[in-house]
């Protein structure tokens, strides 16, 4: 039986998700995206805009929201759930995911990522290339763990938070909702909701938008 996947978003992240889907055994992948032909992926089709998602439900039973922006990704995720699509998680075959980890719906785990035992990954989370999430961590829905980020054990990350490329988080730290952590930052204490943190150790970025 042919396995088909509709990918919402054909930017860089969406195309990475599509590649991983083929590695996971999907036979057919196509995109929806509001930018149309501007991001036409090589060899794959952009079938229409996000607003047309419902039109494809009969022929494309499974879909995944694959945009980098956490707010938009969550909105698209909830839309496709309400429309009756299956929302599989895509885990690249080279990723290492413990059988004791709990992975939500619509999660993307990229090549080389590691998720250790008793970690809990919420819906529509991105665990990007080479990111490492150790035992007993909890990642809130819609968050993005960027390439090479390292979370020691028992870290809690709130919803719609972005942990930048190569950052590191000390064991037992709690990070709030809608937080941004800069590239290469070292998080050694709890971080409050809605703020941007940079540096070693990570501190609030003043005048951040």
UniProtKB/TrEMBL annotation:
Organism domain of life: Bacteria
Coiled-coil region: none
Pfam families xref list: PglD_N (PF17836)
The family this protein is said to belong to: Belongs to the transferase hexapeptide repeat family.
Record-given protein name: Acetyltransferase
Stretches assigned to the PglD N-terminal domain: 5-79
């Amino acid at each position: 039986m042919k396995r088909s996947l509709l990918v919402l978003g054909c930017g860089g992240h969406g195309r990475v998700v599509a590649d991983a889907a083929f590695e996971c055994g999907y036979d057919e992948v196509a995109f929806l995206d509001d930018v149309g032909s501007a991001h036409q992926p090589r060899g794959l089709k952009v079938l229409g805009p996000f607003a047309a998602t419902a039109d494809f439900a009969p022929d494309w039973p499974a879909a995944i929201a694959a945009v980098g922006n956490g707010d938009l990704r969550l909105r698209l995720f909830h839309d496709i759930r309400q429309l009756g699509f299956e929302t599989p998680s895509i885990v690249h075959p080279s990723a290492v995911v413990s059988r004791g980890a709990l992975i939500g719906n619509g999660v993307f785990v990229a090549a080389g990522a590691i998720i250790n035992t008793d970690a809990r990954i919420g819906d529509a989370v991105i665990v990007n290339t080479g990111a490492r999430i150790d035992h007993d961590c909890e990642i809130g829905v819609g968050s993005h763990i960027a390439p090479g980020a390292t979370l020691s054990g028992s870290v809690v990350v709130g919803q719609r938070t972005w942990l930048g490329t190569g950052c590191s988080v000390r064991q037992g730290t709690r990070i709030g909702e809608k937080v941004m952590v800069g590239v290469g930052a070292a998080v050694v204490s709890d971080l409050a909701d809605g703020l941007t943190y940079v540096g070693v150790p990570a501190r609030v970025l003043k005048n951040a938008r």
